[in-house]
What does this fold into?
Amino acid sequence: MYAFCVKTSRLGPQYRAAALDELDGGSFDVVVIGGGITGVGCALDAASRGLSVALIEQRDLGSGTSSRSSNLIHGGLRYLEQLDFKLVREALRERELLLRSIAPHLVWPVPLIYPIKHRIWERAYVGAGITLYDALAKLGRSTLPRQWHLSKKELTRVFPGIKKDEFVGGIRYYDAGTDDARLVLAIARTAAQTGATILTSARVTGFGRDEAGRINSVEATCLESGKRITVGAGVVINATGVWTDATEMLVGDTDKDVTASKGIHVVVPKSAIDSSVGFITKTKTSVLFLIPQGEFWIIGTTDTPWELDLDHPAASERDIAYVLEQANRVLARQLTTEDIVGVFAGLRPLVIGNAVSTAKLSREHSITEPASGLITIAGGKLTTYRVMAQDTVDRACEAVGVDVPPTKTDQIPLVGATGYSAMNDSREELASRYGVTESEIRRLLHRYGSEATEILDLAASDPILAKQAPSGPYLGAEIRFAVECEAALHLDDVLTRRTRLSIECDDRGTEAAEFVASIMAPLLGWEGAAVARELEHYTKRVAAERDSQTMPDDHTADAARLGAPDIRTLGA
Ligand SMILES: Cc1cc2nc3c(=O)[nH]c(=O)nc-3n(C[C@H](O)[C@H](O)[C@H](O)COP(=O)(O)OP(=O)(O)OC[C@H]3O[C@@H](n4cnc5c(N)ncnc54)[C@H](O)[C@@H]3O)c2cc1C
It folds into this structure.
């Protein structure tokens, strides 16, 4: 059998088989439900404090909200307006830690413009807000440049594509960007390397209790094989985002604690907007972000209640029209649906408060104990996952009377972080050693950090692995790495989260699907019928999303509507 006691960050199919065996009938200090940023953060925190940890995710790592965000690691300027200084200061400290030491390969500075329409009062008001933002950042030892006031002329120099007569100037400041899905993955792999056992494609369906009524186990079903397992737990952490209430229902708690608010983004090519900086401004119901990411712009977002299927949120025609309309209020060259190469929709898990609209509900997290032995963590944001994890593990240990050392995740670099800076400094040398361009080295370093050479070595070992996927920059080697080290089990995992082919190509990744499947198939033991099923499911998922995008009102993007049953429940 696989030597499981070896801590590894290589989450391939062999690892998964061994994890399933280990969980079945096994017992752990902590069982975490949910493999979004909150759950993987908790798994890393608990494992690094010496606890034995199992994490169970029903689909793919990051497949819920955590791969559908605006991809910003930010303090949240708008929370300053709500006078939420604590939240902003905490988030800015996390931003700095991620940029500097935890994930310098996956988190990068993003210059942003906040535009000004009114010369005197608005410049003073916004300027004061951003000064405070910078000051709070400095308390967290921020290394990012401070704000810079721009005249109208300077604004049009850095952002030539802006409507010339709309603004009198702007304020330039910095936040940070990331690839949310890859950040989740890096945290999960680091947790595994620290000793946590990660099992994906397994749904928690129930709980067991001891004689005193305390929860002491979880029941789960492997969605690949249908196998049912029982996992002993000292304490269970419910980190299931918008599914929080569904998970709590399994222990008979019928209170509604979390509401889902949908936010959508559209993706357009870099050439569609002439600017060297990102852009942020308030809209009637949300915030408009234009965020540069690689060869694309991510434009969002919306904030509307979502009451349909939590598994398959989708953008409607109205959502897309709204985002384009907001962007076109500031852009000289008007964007149309023709410019859009990708669209994605996510659900914010908002803790229910007294606020009337979802835009006003708190982004802070809440930790509760709905049943003895079950700790629920809800709300929060991507940026503050580490603090949320620390609070949750503290609370879980307190609930079961276990003494643990304080968290040390602020000192744990994620996989790929150690050695990244040195490699980044020697990009030119790496490029000539591997016979690729320096920009290709930069692309790989941002995705894999110091593991980039593993991708380059794989590519050098086999011409198929050196080939690029049709309609995208991703190499065959990256697809193989996704299966062997990054827990990818299905085509959708690779096309949507390990790569971003599903939102970076007009064809939404369908053209690359066969190439990707041809590399995944031998590694995952797919025969002809399995390959056909994966391709059919992916194509129908894309069709369901496109279909929803032509409807004025909300519809789910459940591929089952088009006759493709959920790929993860076929074996169950
Ligand atoms: C439009 C939008 C933009 C955003 N932008 C930003 C941003 O720029 N910066 C920022 O910091 N934050 C942002 N956020 C917020 C952030 O994305 C979320 O707060 C965060 O991703 C929530 O993570 P989570 O782990 O709690 O939930 P999820 O990522 O949804 O994870 C929950 C997981 O639980 C699993 N699960 C559910 N039930 C079960 C079960 N029974 N068994 C096993 N597993 C189960 C699900 O499959 C899922 O993977 C944004 C959110 C949205 C929607």
Q: What stands out?
A: The radius of gyration is 23 Å.
